[in-house]
Design brief:
The protein has 146 residues and is α/β, with parallel strands linked by helices. Helices cover 38% and strands 17% of the residues. The protein is globular, with a radius of gyration of 15 Å.
Amino acid sequence: MPTPSPPATMRGHFREKGIDQAQKVARFCEAHDMQLSLILTSPLRRAHETAKPMAAALRAELMIVPWLASGMHPEAALEELRAYRSQTSVMLVGHEPDFSQLAAHLLGLPTNNAIHVRKGSLTLLELDVFRAGAATLQFSLPCKLM
């Protein structure tokens, strides 16, 4: 049975919260001189609405990519990311638990039980070689600490 949508008032609250979090992340990135060359976002509305204010504030190109839609597989995401290896810094805007699974895969963890990427957080993984286990976790900050 499909999960019912939240009432319109709740959807508005979630949308406002997501936009507030996106603006907070953008201000944090600006304050810490984080330069982004590209923001890749899921085509799903909530992710795209979150990515738009960040792209505008950080003056980064915004690109919608279907592989970031909910249900992304880490191996497929890593393969897709190879196309952007010439970019200096790429931000991904998508969904949980997909990002925890991707982080675990990139860090070489056997499961995503050892890492939880919080919604509305900013996580920096450095990746010089595009293969599982090759990333280095620099930080993961929940929005409330920014």
